[in-house]
Amino acid sequence: MNISNSSTVKAAALVLSALASYSVTAKAEPWYKQSMYKGQYTELNTCTQTYPSYWQDPNPKFTKMWEGQTISNVPTTLWDEGIFALSDKYPRELVIEPKKNQPWYDAKFDALFDESTPQREKSKLAKEYIKLVYAYGLEGNIAGKGRVASRDFDTCENKYRPWFHIPFQTYDPLSGREYIRGLTREAPVTFSVQDSSGTDASTMWAVGFYNATAAYTLGEVWQEDGTAKLPKKGVRFHEGAVIIKPLFNTSTIAQIPVLAGLPSWNANISDPAYCECKVAPGSKDKDGNERKECNFIEESKQCKRNSQAWDDVKLLQFDVAVRDDRAKDTGWVYGTFVADGQRKAKVKNPWEKMTWLGLMWGNDTPAKGHLAFNTPVNPREKGFSEAVINWSLVDELNKYSGSAMTRQVGHLGCNNRLNGPADNTNSSCMSCHGTASLPDSERNTPLMISQFGEQTPECAVPLINSDTLGKDRGGDTGEIHDGINFAQIDSLYFANTGAGESFNIRVDGKSLAQPHYDFAPDKKEWISLDYSMQLSISLQQWLEWVENQQLDPNDHVLKDFRGRN
């Protein structure tokens, strides 16, 4: 199949060459004066202090949120390493960049989404596609003209294009943004390693960035007055939206050698072994019942932050997400880069020591009655229909890992679907994010992974001589719930959810938990947030704050699952 012509190849090569330095190229006028921004901006700065920038932000208009807490996430008057500011001046009119700025939309990449394209050609296209997105995300955000490496991704005044953060990842004392880089705590990760410990209990810290097209959709929810407008129907990002997310890990280079030479950031984090709060015996909630979760005062005291007690966090993973209508079943393309510091030891730029792990635009949904655990058959040899994996990097990552396969750094997801080291071995990038929904009136959302609640486990295989028990890819045994068998749960979690469409909760006349929205009591479907777990979690925290304002600080608790965002 002829998938390109010489002029297209030449143009793409020129783009790659121009982006390779990741430095800001000279422009005839600043980005905010360019016509695509429709006169919405008059300066580079996109940080307004409309929302808290980090947990325990000392701005007087936010301090009630931290009432009674032990303060450990506020810089001193002598702090001189920079303080994170939230980029929150979202465009209120849709911004669409010209395609020349986003070269992965070139027609040559149409073949990537064509199932008839040979795997070798598809792999070449996937590699080029994801590297173009990565270069786009680094432009103006890392060391170059007018920047110093110590403030990489300080986005308030990006000279190339604006990038934005999502607000209200600040209310939760355990996961809320820290003040140096704006990192939020994500899931604990235990790796199988080769050093004397054998296992490495670590924590991921991350921060997401949204380009102007994606930020317009955020602005439809997050208002200029510092409040949220809850969507009454599914949110849908526009084509051209790009979201990037560097994820940092607390492990040492001795434990994970591929981290050598990668960007490392000082951050005001809690215990790298993943601090968990313990409720004081005999504690009661506001209704007089025994309290099962710590309140915010207890969490802030037991899981204090510190920028000096632990080593810098190191870049392990870098995720990208692109709205692309050529992904006909989902509307999204997800990609992941992972640290490759050993093979790239001689590369000077630390951000270039990342290597692409894979690209996916669908879940390769199992046929009815089949399991995601072993469908499709032998994807390493035969490939996926809706994904490409860089097996060379997988092997490199696992070479430096221990023998526990599903805890190796290159563990991937269910049946080797795309998932990075920070992610769950029973899922995939898209199976998780496809569940993103507006919290209902009881603050519930669909489980992003079925193992996180009382549901039949996904990516599991039945045990011999058992009608109810199975073992998932991580090696854990689980049981069937509500009559939904293992193939049926996989048909829900590994379905291809369309952009802006509700996560399906029904199979063969059976159903997972339904939402309850006070404003639409008859609604039986979850309101989609279009693959944005960060939007779902931030709205969860916002809704908790709205409710908790009426309560004593000792009754401030967070009901949501504190996992990947």
From TrEMBL:
<feature type="signal peptide">
    <location>
        <begin position="1"/>
        <end position="28"/>
    </location>
</feature>
<keyword id="KW-0732">Signal</keyword>
<protein>
    <recommendedName>
        <fullName>Cytochrome c domain-containing protein</fullName>
    </recommendedName>
</protein>
